Amino acid sequence: MEQIFQAIKFDSGHIGSLTSISILTKKDIEKKNYESNEFDKAFMYTQLLKENLLDIEYDYKAKTKLVEYCRIKYADADYQLSLIDEFELEYNKELAIEWYTKESFLYSMMNRALRSQDIETIMKMGFFILDLHKQIEKIYNEQKNQHEIITVYRGQSMLLDEFEKLKTSIGALLSFNNFLSTSIDLNISTQFAIRAAENPKVNAVLFEMIVDPKISSVPLAFLAENSSYKYENEILFSMHTVFRIIDVQHIQDQYWLVNLNLTSDHDQALKTLTDHFRKEIEGGTPLDRIGHLMLKMGEFNQAEKIYDAQLNSENEKPWR
C-alpha cells in the first residue's frame, strides 16, 4: 500500500487533491432564490462556461498560444518546461486524458484556474478542455451499455468553511466544478481520506457516489487504458458534474462519509435553474455569451479581457 502512495504522490495526486465545489440549497431551489446574496452563482458559472467553451471552434494556433502562455507561467520550473516542450511536440486530441492524468502543468493549471475563476487561463486552455470532454464522451458512448448502476469514490480534503456548508445541505445539489477523478476502489479512496485527516486545517472527506447510466447522460470514462495512473481503477467525469447530497456521516472520528447520487437528466429543479441562467446570457457568439456571463458574475475585469480580445482581433479568432 505504501508503495502505491509513493507512486501516486499523495500531495498532488488526482484522487486526493482539493477540488472546487458549489452547492445549491433546497431553500434556493424551492424559492427560485437565484438573485439573493446567499445563492452560489458559481454553481451555474461552470455549467454555462463549459457549454460555451465547447461551442467555440478552435484552430491550429490554439496549442501554440497555450504553449507560449505556459512557458511564461513556468519560466522558473525546468521540469515543467521540459513537459511543455514534450506537449508541444507530441500532443494531439487522442492524448487529452493521458496528458490530464499526468502530474504536469496541465492538471494543476486547469484546476487552479477553474477554482479561482481565472478566465484568461481557462480561455487559453479552451481547446484542451474541449478535447478532454470529447474523449471522455467518446469512451462513455463506447462503454455505456456495459455497466449497470455503479458506486465510485473520492477521498480528499475540504476547506473547513466549504465542508460546513456541505454538512448542513442534505438534499441540496452539489456540483464539482472541474473534471472529476474518482475510483471504484473503496480501500484506496478511504486511505486518501484518512491521509487528508493529518492536516488540522481541512476536513477529511470520502465521497460515495451512486451513478445510474440509465437515468443520466453525464459522460464518464473508465480509464484502464488511458490514464497515467492505471492502478487507481480511475473513472473520470466531465467538467461540472452535478449530484444530490443524500447523507453526511462522521466515521470513527477519522473522516466524513458523504453520500451522493448523480442527478437524473429529468431533474426538474436543475433544468429550471439552468434554463433561467442560460436565458440571461443568450444571443451572440460563444465569446459574447462568456463575456456576458462574467458581467452577471460581477467579474468586470474578466469580462473586459474577453471584449478587448474580440475588438482587437479582426483578422484572428480570439483566444487561439
UniProtKB/TrEMBL annotation:
Tell whether Nucleotide-binding is among the UniProt keywords: no
Q: Which domain of life is it from?
A: Eukaryota
Q: This protein is called what?
A: NAD(P)(+)--arginine ADP-ribosyltransferase
Q: Which PROSITE patterns match?
A: TR_MART
Q: Which family does it belong to?
A: Belongs to the Arg-specific ADP-ribosyltransferase family.
Which Gene Ontology terms cover its molecular function? NAD+-protein-arginine ADP-ribosyltransferase activity; nucleotidyltransferase activity
Instruction: Give EC number(s), comma-separated.
Output: 2.4.2.31
| Catalytic activity field | L-arginyl-[protein] + NAD(+) = N(omega)-(ADP-D-ribosyl)-L-arginyl-[protein] + nicotinamide + H(+)
Keywords assigned by UniProt, alphabetized: Glycosyltransferase, NAD, NADP, Nucleotidyltransferase, Transferase
Claim: Nucleotidyltransferase is one of the keywords in the record: yes
**What Gene3D superfamilies does the record point to?**
Toxin ADP-ribosyltransferase, Chain A, domain 1
Pfam families xref list? ART
Under InterPro entries, the record lists: ART
